[in-house]
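User: Hi! I'm a student and our assignment asks us to look at how structure tokens line up with a sequence. Could you show me two examples?

Assistant: Happy to help. In each example below, the sequence comes first and the structure tokens follow. Example one:
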Amino acid sequence: MSIKIGREAEDAEIWYEETFDAVRIDWKRETDGEEFREALQTGLRILKEQNATNWLGDRRKMGPVSTADKQWVTEEWLPEAVSTPLTQIAAVQPERYLEELGVEYTVQKIGDDITLKQFDNPEDPKQWFWVRD
């Protein structure tokens, strides 16, 4: 069951997916700066409100993230996300990105409690959420 809370805009749709206890963000196009940060902040708000343990981001249409936005995620957004019940982040990437990334980088730890895993299909993370919970 999906609960449509959050926002739907030109850049991204964000909601809570109860079945998988996941905040889901589907990027619709390339975005950066304020738009990018606002979308992630909306997802973080939902994460906190729902006490969700999973995050599913479909980045296949998103495009590259700027250096400034990467720094903002690392220094501001991620520390706040780590303070929530979040334990799993699934990032759905374009297949070409995963090929460039290499197998050794498809699963990473963030801090002590969060695992980030890369996928090329938005259905695969749902199975991973079930197995790990």
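Example two works the same way, sequence first and then tokens:
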Amino acid sequence: MATNFHVVFEAMVDELLGDPSYDDWKKIGDGKIIDHIYKYKSLFSDDDTFYIGDSKYYQTKRSVEERSESALKQFTYARSIVNNSIKQSIGNTWPYRDPLTEGYSVTPNFFISAETDPELRYDVDGLDREDLHGAAFMSRQFTNRLFDRDTLWIRQYNLNFLYLISVFAAAEDGSKSQFRKRAHKFFRDQTINLLNERYMFWELEPKNGADLDEILKDNLKWALRGMAYRMGRKSNKLILAMEVPDKDAEDPFALDNNFRISEDAKRLKKIVPELFIQRPCRLSKKDGEFVEYVPVPSDSHHGFFFFFFDECQTD
């Protein structure tokens, strides 16, 4: 019975979130099928990008460790979608792969499980209840490479099961449409919140009106590989991401991670200021905007970071 209900729950969520025009993309080989897929606004440009979701109905509440097992499967799904997108877009791989920087855009991923509202309410979807939020998981090959092909993030959420039933019990489709719009925006916004917490961003604009293509022709492309991405297929600006170090790191893995971030910062300080105007920023959730400028980070905030902000602009 529980197995059958899992199938029903998955189908209900997919009707609310998914786009049937991309159902053919769900089959990724070896009998594996992605639960939910649709296109929505990219995080860094005017283009749409794929959002990938998985959903499960559990009879009992799951621990973070148990949820991580689902995250591992989700990483495989996300890699498959990126690979298929590139294969089917030969000659025009944007926005999944920027041929200029060789950076890969972030593909938002989410996992949804059912949770009954503690107050037994039918009119609250529960996605943004902090006490019901799941963890964030990351898979990567290289430290401090947000725009690397193998760097993937997944956010996990719970959906109020009573709300889900009420939406499908409603005679009109207005409730479904309203939830779909809210959920699509919510998953994008939550991905932005996550990245703003874990990374520091800078907008890089070539000095003296220089052409970005010309600047990146030389070895600079390799120096920025995996850390930079062009802000639009015709844009003359880059967005640079640097992982926020763990100032309280004690275990060997975290200390090594901090060391690698610091080495990246030292290396870029020798290259970036000479060629680019640097503007500290955060990813923006406002329509039509992709970044919002912020004050120059203080050295005290990220202790050992060797910043290259000698000439930063915040206007």
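Here is something you could point out in your write-up. The radius of gyration is 21 Å.
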